[in-house]
Amino acid sequence: MDFTFSEDQLLFCDSVKDFLTTEVTADSIRSAWDSETGRNPALWQQMVELGLTAMLVPEAQGGLGMNELDFILLAEECGKVALPEPLVETVLVATPLLASLAAEDARCSRLLEQIAAGEIHIAVQHSVNQLVSDAHIADWLLLCNGDQIHLLSKDQVQLTVQKSVDPSRRLFSVEWQASEETCLAKGSLGVALQAASLNRGALGAAAQLIGLAEAMVAQTVTYTSERLQFGKAIGTNQALKHHMANCAVKTEFAKPPLYRAAYTLSQKPNHADFAVSHAKVVAGEAALLAAKNAIQCHGAMGYTWECDLHIWMKRAWALDKFWGHGGFHKNRIHQWLLKPAAKIGADKTFGEQI
Amino acid sequence: MMDLNYSPEQVAFRQQVRQWLAEHVPAEPLASFDTEAGFEQHREWEKTLAQGNWGMVTWPESYGGRGCNLIEWLIFEEEYYRAKAPLRVNQNGIFLLGPTLMEYGTDEQKARFIPKMASGEEIWAQGWSEPGAGSDMASIRSKAIRDGDEYVINGQKVWSTRAVFADWVFCIFRTDPESEKHKGLSFILVPLDTPGVTVRPIPQLDGLPGFAEIFFDDVRVPVTNRLGDEGQGWQIAMATAGFERGLMLRSPARFQETAKRLVELYRNHQNDILDLSIEDAVVKAFLSAEAYALSTYQTASRLMKGGTIGAEASLNKIFWSELDQSMHETAMSILAARAELLPEAPAAGDVGTWLDGFLFSQSGPIYAGTNEIQRNIIAERLLGMPRK
After folding, report:
1. What is the ipTM of this complex?
2. Where would I find the beta strands (DSSP E) of chain A?
3. Which residues in chain B are contacts of A342 at CB distance < 8 A?
């Protein structure tokens, strides 16, 4: 029993954190809003060179063969800087889905090589989201139709822009035709793969939500330490301190469920529903509270377009609802709790022990 | 490498704990330890635990412990609450003073106090708060003035839990009468049967004398009853408070078992629940109890690798106290109109210990430093918000 990350995992996270903090700033995010795609190909190439897109690609396809737990701290960091690029979904959703099919399907194997090499983007659709994010830059799309999963090239689909309140998010509805040739999986395999994608998507969103929450608290601490009223920093007021302390409590107790979910997905993916839903619910709550308390502590400034806070707030509001909102995930837990056979109690934290 | 599986040794340890508890935990729940009879029943239970070397598993074997690491401690606690074993009447001693003694006590003090604490022979109360010094503990005015090899103590302590039936109290007194605030305080141990000590019971919400006021009138104790150096009292008290807010006092097992009972209560009342918020509250309570357990395993793992716990303890204290309160509020909502009934009321039915637990849960956000104080600590020391 050891609930800590390894030195290697922590060191790698630190180096990626430094990279992201330097390269992804409020200014760079704002300037991307005005570009056609909203995405920065040069930044993506830098991430490819760091090996980030290859992390969960199996070694057989030229990847690093790592798992969800290896990536989870990095996903948190992506949230912390409000990264617009679809790194988290590429690594945690598209890659494992293709890797599940690579042994039987040469197309998937080839796509994994290209992901690792940074040659392509893949977008993933899931019924829980309806819309597809980053479909406009995708070379290939993984699309669901009932119990089936299909692979279509960008030329085979028609996209309709669906604007988000978060100018960094690029969402699309996709029109397409299913065919025998495009089908990668169906039946129970298709259902299982879609369920796994849901869990991995929710895990990635949860990790980013934690990062977003911490970033909003950090920005608010800075702002309230500098902003003077009645001759003193507004952050000296207990009411504001308690707003921030409440955020810190929520975030602190959302992290262990997140790490447990990442661990469970990497070790026992078929038993991860509960752990993932737990992580998504509490990460969403932590981020929503951070957004609410952060804007309150910023006062009118927080309600402006000029203040950077909204970059993080809007991402939090969006990701809280993406890959299953709180109600969806609480319902999964509720259904489980109602089962008389559900194993709960003090000795059951890590499953049935005796 | 993260590994969330118990080792075969840990599984065997759990089995050993489970078996011992199955053989020794009293079949009938003990009376409240805030009654004279119940206090003695709980003292007997402490003796039983000590005889099996289960009193404080993390302590060294030389003090009656088992030298367990924190993961084994968590396993022990899980089994302890699972077996519905009695609450620990000596919690002030074993969870707060014990670790403080091990860190700051002399060898003589450790030998004098720890074994009797472990055996339940000496039950401890805490004497920090005063009428004018609650959250503002640096305002302590009770004095212990040096007179040769003795201190002469005068003053008053209040909100002293378990002091009505306890044997000893650990206190903070002002040993330098000219000093102010955090300076000039010392940490002194006082037998409650010393001449000049008067203990006046204060009934708590349940009507039982769980609190006491302690009056000191020219009470003389030897200088050797001081823990640490003269004037070091504040520093030692902060270490004790760290133990109180930190890992040991409220292990997650307690809340996980409450959450389990809440889920069971909820299942049993599926057809008569009207309050629309209850489904959500039950799910959240369960998730929070689970999160607290996960967090504690994470902290324990970190500490075992040489990490430390500081102001983070304030996060814990807020989380468990508010979790306990919300679980009991939810149970009261499920029990609805019967929730107010005492267990002996004929119509009480499955109200059971929920009412008692609900009352006690109101104290969680207050004791061990109010949650408002904890929020200040978090904002200033963890987040770096300005003090002035």
Report:
1. 0.96
2. 122-124, 132-133, 140-145, 148-153, 158-163, 170-175, 183-185, 228-229, 232-233
3. 263
